[in-house]
Design goal:
The structure holds two protein chains of two kinds.
Chain A: H1 14-21, E1 30-31, E2 46-51, H2 66-75, E3 80-82, E4 88-90, E5 93-98, E6 104-109, H3 123-134, E7 149-156, E8 159-164, H4 183-186, E9 206-212, E10 216-221, E11 234-239, H5 243-251, E12 257-259, H6 262-268, H7 272-277, E13 278-284, E14 287-293, H8 303-312, H9 315-323, E15 327-329, H10 352-361, E16 374-375, E17 378-379, E18 381-387, H11 391-406, E19 410-416, H12 418-426, E20 433-439, H13 447-450, H14 468-479, H15 483-500, E21 503-511, E22 513-516
Parallel strand pairs in A: 2-11, 18-19, 18-20
Antiparallel strand pairs in A: 1-13, 3-4, 5-6, 6-8, 7-8, 9-10, 10-11, 12-22, 13-21, 13-22, 14-20, 14-21, 15-21, 16-17
Chain B: H1 2-29, H2 34-39, H3 47-57, H4 63-74, H5 90-125, H6 130-144, H7 147-161, H8 180-217, H9 221-228, H10 233-256, H11 265-270, H12 276-285, H13 289-317
Classes of the chains: A alpha+beta, B mainly alpha.
Chain lengths: 549, 324
């Protein structure tokens, strides 16, 4: 549930995006209701969460969907995790030391942590997980961070040491739950055919009771969990692919927890039933939506043109129209409120006059009076591509279309099936502009998206952005663990990106979860609400379900 | 007869291979691959990792080699492993969803036949009456109304306002703690709305079909003969006409067999039923080649068997047709 890993993925296909809607990766708690404490915490009850998708593989390193990470995250703990304020803290690791040259990290593990079968979880399990993820026979998408490691050693049962080829600050966070596996069970096995893919043997707060494919995944609490037995005894992940049905099930009281759409949040949950039985929460999610320009296209090479387009787009209007105001305007690739977010970058408020002036300055003028600008006999028109099935992006495109027409730019919107969209258009750089979204990582490293070396086939700087200073700053940020130094680098990157406008940064939506009132102890923070899930509880009097052993 | 059946069965083999080759090509022609679907736009993905995944799924080999490997497994009745991240055997993934899909389809087909055939026959007998017209309107409403919309309305009515029926899924949360009788009741209650709704949508086809059959038959010479020799109208309709009107239904039934394993994605999603429709849809969207091929092979086999069955049973029930 602590979606450290969700951020690795990207919210782009229909599937990913819809998962994102109920993503619990969040930010500053703007709580709607008080989290009061009336009666003392008690053990018992079950929480039923609605999910649009089933998990696929409960060994997280083999999975690529957020449902699998949600469930695996409840069953496995790693060396480190993000706390409520998004600081990296120890989980299985009590502490760690970083060598003076920033190359070596030594993790000191807690003693006495047990796998569900009673065997102690030690540095050997971390080593085993590491060896598995870098093994060429493991079909994982997450080996990248671990390939930066030059050497990994088990110093003793409770000390694990890694040495990197180059200092690699984002590497620290990678030692989460994906990379710790029970060696005594998996050693010598083909991991892809292991029973653990469907029945986890974890060290975390919950363990699997039953998984009925396509119906539900049922977990029960691990009474021997090293941080103490979780209060809520049962966790049911109920698979309901249709969000309208899910909402009806919520209304009927058959699920306790789901993510709402802005419409449901604002308009459909105003009834008495909802106000009496549920609490709603609202915080920024870890995603942003943008319009990116293909910078290889001559049309977009002058930054003044990109700035003009940014001025011509009314971002607040998009926020209102698409999210009913439930989000914030994005100014760069980070989430407002995090330590890396720079609140003072150049802003591009809606200003069509300024846009027109900038376009005029760059030689665009409407010579023939048809309402569309021309330069050297060529009309200013381009096509924005986006993926099918994402209504938010389609609406965003339409609003942008209208505003750009007003300054004399004609755009066409083309919607494409996801695989074709990526493989035939984005990967081949066969596009003029696109509306897409990124997941914002908890770690601010943006090497893969903004570094000029990442412009090859299938790499993520598909807009071909090249800026030497940004390249240098990205490397600076990667090579130091000193937060102040990293902060300076990322602040400056945001200033440059704002000035250059390679993307028009559009919005960061809110995550809008709703939870049944009987669950207490929920404390919204920068990390959202589920970071302290094991501390949620239902008082004895209010418990609804009983788990019979 | 036996030689005819054998001949038909052997004839299916080249046909099946033809179908698999075309399907194999088409699914590989679609942009993307299982690997790209799993890894596209993932910042942690490296070229090396992508190679690793391609190799794992055997997608690094030329297409004809991939096809050869797939067929090699197929002839030993092995449909291979899914190309999704769960990497489970295709047959397991299909097997766990097969019972519920067949069960719902059989029930709704049964309901459709029970309602649609009498409706069609009566409409034909009382052609252009008020009954005929109102049935026509009724079945076409069923045909035309979007299932998802009607389903949601019924859910709100029966699931929330009246609180008579469960909204979605197959079982209640407390299912395992119920008595055997209540478990049965719980399951039946969960199936009621899905089965009724899918039957409602299918009424139009069968009732129209039996109506037009019947209309054709009551204009035949032998019906005129029956009337001429003084039989009562009910004897004419229910004894002479009806039996003949049933004949084409046999053919349609045979052709409905492959539909028994088909399911509608929209329908299954809205009722949260883990059926084959969702599985197939997700397999196509995720470019899960082996699962798509597995479902297609089973579908193709059932279609061919259904055709054969229709032909045979037609010959059995209609003395005018004999297989030589």
């Amino acid at each position: 549930m602590k979606n450290i890993f969700l951020v690795f993925g990207l919210l782009c296909s229909i599937f990913f995006v819809s998962c994102e809607e109920r993503s619990k990766a969040p930010d500053q708690g703007k709580k709607e209701a008080q989290t009061d404490r009336v009666a003392p915490p008690a053990y018992g009850d079950t929480i039923i969460e609605g999910s649009i998708g089933d998990a696929s593989n409960l060994i997280a390193m083999l999975a690529s969907d957020s449902a699998s990470f949600d469930i695996a995250g409840l069953c496995y703990n790693g060396l480190v995790k993000y706390d409520k304020d998004l600081n990296l803290v120890g989980d299985l690791a009590e502490s760690w030391d970083i060598s003076a040259d920033n190359l070596t990290i030594s993790f000191h593990l807690r003693k006495g942590v047990k796998w569900q079968d009673g065997v102690e979880c030690t540095a050997h399990d971390v080593m085993f997980g590491y060896q598995t993820i870098i093994s060429p026979n493991t079909p994982t998408a997450y080996a990248g961070d671990f390939q930066e490691v030059a050497k990994a050693e088990v110093i003793d049962k409770y000390t694990f040491r890694v040495t990197y080829k180059k200092p690699f600050a984002p590497g620290l966070a990678s030692w989460g739950s994906v990379v710790v596996l029970p060696k005594h069970i998996l050693e010598g096995q083909d991991i892809t055919k292991s029973s653990l893919t469907r029945a986890p043997m974890g060290n975390g707060p919950y363990k699997l009771k039953e998984w009925k494919t396509g119906e539900k995944i049922e977990l029960v609490s691990n009474h021997d969990y090293f941080e103490g037995r979780p209060y809520v005894d049962g966790f049911v992940y109920k698979i309901i692919p249709d969000t309208a049905t899910m909402f009806l099930e919520l209304q009927a009281g058959n699920i306790d927890f789901m993510g709402l759409s802005p419409l449901q949040y604002l308009r459909q949950t105003k009834t008495k039933t909802f106000q009496e039985n549920f609490r709603k929460y609202k915080y920024l999610s870890f995603t942003y939506t943008y319009m990116g320009f293909n910078l290889l296209n001559p049309l977009f090479q002058d930054k003044r043109v990109r700035q003009a387009i940014s001025y011509a787009i009314n971002k607040n209007e998009i926020l209102e129209g698409v999210l009913l105001g439930l989000g914030e305007v994005a100014t760069g690739p980070y989430k407002p409120g995090t330590w890396q977010y720079n609140p003072e970058v150049k802003a591009f408020p809606f200003d069509p006059e300024k846009a027109k002036a900038l376009l005029k300055e760059t030689g665009w003028a409407d010579a023939d009076g048809d309402g569309i600008l021309e330069k050297n006999g060529k009309r200013f028109e381009f096509t924005v591509i986006l993926n099918q099935g994402n209504n938010e992006r389609r609406k965003t495109g339409e609003i942008i279309q209208r505003r750009l027409t007003e300054v004399g730019i004609k755009i066409k919107i083309r919607t494409l099936e996801w695989a074709a969209f990526i493989n035939e258009y984005i990967d081949k750089k066969n596009f003029e502009a696109t509306i897409l979204g990124w997941t914002i990582g908890q770690d601010p490293d943006v090497f893969d998206i903004w570094h000029s070396s990442k412009t090859h086939f299938k790499e993520l700087n598909f807009i071909s952005y090249k800026n030497e200073e940004v390249d240098r700053l990205i490397m600076e940020g990667r090579h130091t663990f000193d937060r102040e130094k990293r902060k300076q680098a990322y602040y400056r990157i945001q200033e440059i990106l704002a000035e250059d406008q390679p993307y028009v940064f559009l919005y960061v939506p809110y995550a809008l979860p709703i939870i049944h009132m009987r669950f207490r102890g929920i404390e919204p923070a920068a990390a959202g609400i589920t970071y302290n899930f094991t501390k949620w509880y239902v008082t004895k009097a209010e418990q609804k379900y009983t788990i019979q052993p | 007869m036996a030689t005819y059946i054998l001949k038909r069965l052997f004839g299916m083999i080249p046909l099946l291979f033809g179908i698999t080759i075309v399907s194999f090509l088409v699914i590989h022609l679609a942009p993307g691959s299982p690997v790209t679907i799993q890894t596209d736009l993932n910042p942690k993905m490296t070229a090396e990792a992508r190679e690793r995944l391609l190799k794992f799924y055997g997608l690094d080999k030329p297409l004809h080699v991939q096809y050869y490997n797939w067929v090699k497994h197929l002839v030993t009745f092995d449909l291979g492993r899914s190309f999704a991240t769960d990497n489970r055997p295709v047959i397991d993934k299909i097997k766990e969803r097969l019972p519920i899909t067949i069960f719902i389809n059989v029930l709704s087909l049964f309901l459709i036949l029970m309602i649609a055939i009498p409706l069609g026959i009566l409409s034909a007998v009382y052609q252009n009456s008020l009954f005929d017209r109102s049935t026509t309107v009724f079945v076409f409403i069923g045909f035309a109304i979007p299932t998802f919309w009607l389903a949601l309305l019924l859910m709100i009515l029966f699931g929330i306002q009246l609180d008579w029926l469960p909204i979605s899924g197959l079982k209640s949360v407390n299912y395992e703690y119920l008595s055997a009788f209540n478990q049965l009741k719980d399951r039946a209650a969960h199936l009621l709305m899905p089965v009724l709704l899918s039957a409602f949508g299918g009424l139009a086809g069968f009732s129209r079909y039996s109506r037009s059959n019947m209309l054709e038959i009551i204009r035949q010479d032998y019906i005129t003969t029956a009337r001429a020799k003084g039989l009562s109208e009910s004897q004419v309709i229910y004894k002479h006409a009806l039996r003949n009107a049933f004949l084409p239904i046999v053919t349609i039934l045979g052709l409905s067999i492959p539909a028994l394993i088909g399911g509608s994605v929209i329908f299954e999603s809205i009722f949260a039923i883990p059926g084959l429709g969702q599985l197939f849809y997700n397999a196509v969207m995720g470019r899960d080649y082996s699962l798509v091929m597995g479902e297609l092979v089973i579908g193709a086999l059932l279609t061919m068997l259904g055709n054969l069955l229709a032909d045979i049973s037609y010959a059995l029930v209609d003395p005018r047709i004999r297989i030589k």
